[in-house]
Amino acid sequence: MGKHYDVVVIGGGSAGSVVAGRLAAETDADVLLIEAGGWDRNPLIHIPAGFFKLAQRGALDFKYSSVPQQQLDGRPRPTPAARVIGGGSSINAMTWVRGQAGDYAKWHEAAGGIGEWSYEDLLPRFAALETNNIFSGAGHGVDGPVQVSWPPRINQLNLAAVKAFQELGLPFNADYNGRDQSGVSITQNSMGNARRSSAATAFLHPARHRTNLTVLTHALAQRLLVTGKRVTGVEVARFGRRQRISAGTVVLSAGAYNSPRLLMLSGIGPEAELAKHGIPLEVRSEDVGRHLQDHPKVAITAHARGDLGYASHTRGMTMLVDGLIYLLTRDGPAATNGIESVSYYNPLDPVGTPTVGTYHVPVSAAMGAKGVTATPGLTFENIVLQPRSRGRVTLRDTDPRSAPLIDPNLLSEPEDLTTLIAGLRYARRAMRMPALAAVLEPELSPGLAVDGDDQLAEFSRRAVSGMAHPVGTCRMGADDDAVVDPSLRVRGVEGLRVIDASIMPNIPSANTNAAVMVIASKGVDLIRAEQRR
């Protein structure tokens, strides 16, 4: 066995960066962070507009793909997972969303009413994360590690979209992270001073030079080391060399695809799945890999009447000029993430809790032979906020380098498709309101001829993809079938916690990054409380 660490954190993403950074800064524990990717040195990570290029290139993710989705059109779907320090917080679109109080009421219920998982319990943690450059007062922080701000500029198409949804009857909501999510809003983003504010820059970088923190990049965790009913360490491969590392506590923060994969490779999981691959059973935990959830997304698009939005800024000399302006002034189109407004609403009940979110993206994007091509226009990305569909993650084989088998099972529940179609109709009405009709051509995709419910259902099954918000595969709960208990300890084995999006019992009505950091913050306090005993 190699060197011993008090805490080994597997996965340097949003959760792992918080856990490792805080434990190193706030305790004397000797902490090791293991990350399959590299440091977040790519300059495109830190420039807000750079996320679009990162998504195009896919250089900082695992490039996973789902199994064929037979309930849709038989095609696989991209299922990206970040492979870089900071994880999703280093490559996402930076929108900062908490969700609805009802989302966390379900977490509290799943935890059996213990462990402080309600929205009221978690609200101080959300606030403590923020240096909010927009709001102060109850519910928002002003001296936290994560910078939160509005975009530095709002382009003409987004302004028109904000007005169009109001013309449709949806009120303007200055703060969707406040008491009520419903309304059309300017996006709140995890950036400050025109730079991305990731979990890495907020928590890990400030602790990087502490003597009690070691960060091992380009290192793949192969399996957990289990002795009896206790996890005692981890086997790691790095640059062709394997090593065993001893640990007092192991924290699994590898995300909703790789946390269950590593558990199963280590003999912790569904008995039949492990037997199928000849893996000796250490702990029977039937829900490992189950309950996978993601937000299904379907877009509608229209071309603009003229060079509006950001399409011309994604290539050529204009892009280079934007980059120079940004370097000199921290301003210009490169200083924004380009997703500057959003709508939350219930298309079937105007006064009901939002069930659909629509992001207003000021480009019309199409996939061609040379990749994604952006043209002047507007895309409404329509998202089911509380999907009922559930998928699963299983093993492809016993090779730790192999991608897991990912079945998101999108739109398998009829209610999700009904909600999505209602959202598409509502968003289409917004496109026809005067503010947008003045600047947009008629709808391009799916096109106005696609209008019946059956036609929209067929279009949705072809066009749907996940939002890259996977959760639920190591769900937390008070019941015996839950993978982790309300203190995030893996049932049936000592010395092991899971702290990442995989523990969520249900997906929040939000981009998941803020909630993941809150889970990680709570997880740190649970570990510290145990250390003090």
Structural description of this entry:
By secondary structure, the chain is of the alpha/beta class. The protein has two domains: 1-102 and 197-293 and 392-409 and 471-504 and 512-533, FAD/NAD(P)-binding domain (3-Layer(bba) Sandwich), CATH 3.50.50; 152-186 and 296-384 and 412-463, Cholesterol Oxidase, domain 2 (2-Layer Sandwich), CATH 3.30.410. The protein is 29% helix and 23% strand. The strands form seven sheets. Strands 1, 2, 8, 9, 10, 11 and 25 form a seven-stranded mixed sheet that branches. Strands 5, 15, 16, 17, 20, 23 and 24 form a seven-stranded antiparallel sheet that branches. β18 and β19 form a beta hairpin. The radius of gyration is 22 Å and the shape is globular. The mean pLDDT is 95.
Q: Please name the CATH topology of the largest domain.
A: FAD/NAD(P)-binding domain
Assign an overall shape.
globular
Question: Percent range for helical residues?
Answer: 25-40%
Number of domain modules: 2
How many strand units?
A: 25
Largest sheet: 7 strands, mixed
Low-confidence stretches: none
How widely separated are the two ends? Answer: 27 Å
Mean pLDDT: 95
Give the DSSP E fraction (strand runs of 2 or more residues). Answer: 15-25%
Radius of gyration: 22 Å
CATH architecture of the largest domain: 3-Layer(bba) Sandwich
CATH superfamily of the largest domain: FAD/NAD(P)-binding domain
Number of helices: 15
Instruction: Provide the structure class.
Output: alpha/beta
Class of the largest domain in CATH? Alpha Beta
